[in-house]
Design brief:
Blueprint (H helix, E strand, L loop, with lengths): L11 H37 L8 E6 L5 H10 L6 H11 L7 E6 L4 H9 L6 E5 L6 H9 L6 H8 L24 E5 L4 H19 L7 H14 L6 H13 L7 H8 L8 H4 L23 H8 L8 E4 L6 E4 L2 H13 L5
Antiparallel strand pairs: 1-2, 3-4, 5-6
Helix pairs in contact: 2-3, 5-6, 8-9, 8-12, 9-12
Amino acid sequence: MTLLDDPAPPTRRARRGDRRRNARVLIGVLGSLALVGLVALGWFWYQLDPPGAAGDRVTLEVEDGWGVDRIASELADRGVIGSPLAFRAYARLTGAGPFRAGRYELREDMGVRPAIGALEAAPAQTYAKLALPPGLTLDMIAARVGALPGLDAARFSEVARSGTIRSEFQPADVSSLEGLTWPDTYYVSEHEDETDVLRTLVRTFDEKATALGLGSAPDPYHVVVVASLVQTEAKLDEDRPLIAAVVENRLRDDMPLQIDATVLYARGTREGALTDADFALDSPYNTYRVKGLPPTPISTVSAASLSAALAPASVPYEYYVLIDESGKHRFAQTYAEHERNVAEARAKGLLG
């Protein structure tokens, strides 16, 4: 046969061999796909109902507007389910959701199917939202608590000043929890009373403050009081360590702090401008008349204010004044320099 000749057609035996090889390849591919499918199905089934007993109790607060994807992520983060993908897939296959807002009692490692069953039942508890921004006094917090169904502001205030619930950073001779609750958004169940709410606020403060290093301070309560002054005076985070430094410098030099926010606290309201009569108030909180720190904090504090009080800036300043509508303060070491800054602020219409 030359190169120009047509190749001979395959024999019947060769064709049968090719078909057998192709069949073996096809069977191998189908077998592999089946194996992958079985593994995937087994994995999915495992995610639905993991073997063994469920773990510790987990409380999940489902908020309004949370969809299946958000809930799947929250459950996975808390260890309730092993796979958000399996949760989403099963929810779509079964038509589960949307789920009602509320508090649900779940278990670690309970699996997708039991978790969805729990979520499709009524929430374990309904709740009310309690928003507490930094800078509130106990009376302000009490008013917000009292606005929730079934709770009373006066009762909350009474418990908060009774000394029956205490922060680990509270001196033995201080009964008030002023400044020792953490600003945050909380969800209060219908079964919680004023004491329960207060315990949560104080426990959260202790946890957050400990994480920031308050426990390592020589006098943690001193730090919290300073932080409350920083909280009520500073508008910008960049000013907080500087204001904390001014407070500490004036204390060191035995100067009255002369912080307006303490007079507002002594007056009992933040509404309206301060008057000469206010500055003359006979109160341990009036830092124009009394040297040293107020006897307690004057508000709740943010993490930024507490961090500033823990680590004041290393600066010689002893004065500051609002100098810009953005909330920026200007700082001075001498009174003469401070007077010039005050004149500039007054010219800008920033001071009364």
